Automatic annotation (TrEMBL):
GO process annotations (BP): isoleucine biosynthetic process; L-leucine biosynthetic process; L-valine biosynthetic process
Reactions the enzyme catalyzes: L-leucine + 2-oxoglutarate = 4-methyl-2-oxopentanoate + L-glutamate; L-isoleucine + 2-oxoglutarate = (S)-3-methyl-2-oxopentanoate + L-glutamate; L-valine + 2-oxoglutarate = 3-methyl-2-oxobutanoate + L-glutamate
EC identifiers of the protein: 2.6.1.42
GO molecular function, one term: L-leucine-2-oxoglutarate transaminase activity
Protein name: Branched-chain-amino-acid aminotransferase
Keyword flag Transmembrane helix: no
Species: Sphingobium fluviale
Pfam families the UniProt entry points to: Aminotran_4 (PF01063)
Protein's pathway: Amino-acid biosynthesis; L-valine biosynthesis; L-valine from pyruvate: step 4/4; Amino-acid biosynthesis; L-isoleucine biosynthesis; L-isoleucine from 2-oxobutanoate: step 4/4; Amino-acid biosynthesis; L-leucine biosynthesis; L-leucine from 3-methyl-2-oxobutanoate: step 4/4
């Protein structure tokens, strides 16, 4: 697709940008530009632009404001050791984006255009890609902007990509996190939107996350909506359980869990190492019993933003328990080190995982 490039005349100076990147946190500091592409039922995808990052002007009757027709993705770009820039498995994000679009009755964006849009933003804002341990978090999203209050799939959409330099997702960096077991809030149910990356799933999780924070926890973990028994995922990350016999378990995909790209990458790495990984239902009662017996030695959450985060403590209305000694286990640490090295091009990984951006 041909993009019109309109440089931001008010782009930050090198000095101002450097000051913003000293300690950017996560999702607070943004680059100078954004990418937008419009879609209409009559004209398809058109008007592709790279332009100054700026607010959207939306009519109060825009469909997204009333019926939440919106999806998004999250991926990262890294500064390579030779000064270039890479992305990690962006085609997987493009594929999942379209799977979300199908579920939300939205138009699919060609996968090559999705990747191209991310590359266009990186090229114009290349100086915003941090070196060292930092990365550029890229947020593609799409929303319905048709002005109409009837309940139906919208006929007009905007696709957009923005980006922000980021540090660690959790305060305190790589220290183990604590999680709260939600026993009365659900993230998703069979036939719902649990496998789609849509804003509504995250909005529904916020009250449970606030409850977790009230109990001094970093994250909330959701159980299944039918029996309130089976562990599913955190508010924004998948889970893995590592056992003393060397095996591993992760909850199975089945429409209620987001098919994480980090999750898929870890599965591939573990399988390549000959580790027995079972994608099977795992109950909260099993979790508690296995942790208390020592059968379960490590647990970690994974996702694009945090990569891997060890789970040290679990709290619930039924009582609290600790995983191992409450610290980061050596297998979790080794997996995190290996995956981040592959993502940054510092270690070899499966073919096609590292996508070089042509600057």
């Amino acid at each position: 697709m041909q993009f019109d490039i309109i440089p931001n005349p008010a782009a930050l100076s090198d000095e101002a940008r450097a000051a913003h990147m000293v300690d950017p946190g996560f999702g607070r500091v943004f680059t100078d530009h954004m990418v937008t592409i419009r879609w209409t039922a009559a004209g398809g995808w058109h008007e592709a632009q790279v332009r100054a990052r700026a607010p959207f002007q939306l009519d109060p009757a825009s469909a997204v404001l009333h019926y939440a027709q919106e999806i998004f993705e999250g991926l990262k770009a890294y500064r390579a050791e030779d000064g270039g820039v890479t992305m990690f498995r962006p085609e997987q994000n493009a594929r999942r984006f379209n799977e979300s679009a199908q579920r939300m009755a939205m138009p699919e964006l060609p996968e090559d255009v999705f990747v191209q849009a991310c590359e266009e933003l990186i090229r114009i804002d290349e100086k915003w890609v941090p070196g060292g341990e930092g990365s550029l978090y890229i947020r593609p999203f799409m929303f319905a902007n048709e002005v109409f209050l009837g309940v139906k799939p919208a006929a007009e959409f905007i696709f957009c990509v923005i980006a922000c330099p980021v540090g660690a997702y959790f305060k305190g960096g790589a220290k183990p996190i604590s999680i709260w077991v939600s026993d009365h809030y659900n993230r998703a149910g069979p036939g719902g939107t649990g496998a789609a990356k849509c804003g509504g799933n995250y909005a529904a999780s916020l009250v449970a996350q606030a409850e977790a924070s009230g109990h001094g926890c970093d994250q909330v973990v959701f159980l299944d909506s039918s029996e309130h028994k089976w562990v599913e995922e955190l508010g924004g990350m998948n889970l893995f359980f590592l056992f003393a016999d060397g095996s591993a378990v992760t909850p199975p995909l089945g429409g209620t869990i987001l098919p994480g790209i980090t999750r898929n990458s870890i599965l591939q790495l573990l399988n390549a190492d000959g580790v027995t990984v079972k994608e099977r239902p795992y109950s909260i009662d099993e979790w508690r019993a296995d942790a208390q017996s020592g059968t379960l030695t490590e647990v970690f959450a994974c996702g694009t933003a945090a990569v891997l985060a060890a789970v040290g403590q679990v709290k619930s209305t039924a009582g609290d328990f600790t995983i191992g000694n409450g610290g980061t286990g050596f297998r979790t640490e080794a997996l995190r080190t290996r995956l981040t090295a592959i993502q940054r091009g510092q270690a070899p990984g499966p073919e096609g995982w590292v996508h070089r951006v042509n600057l």
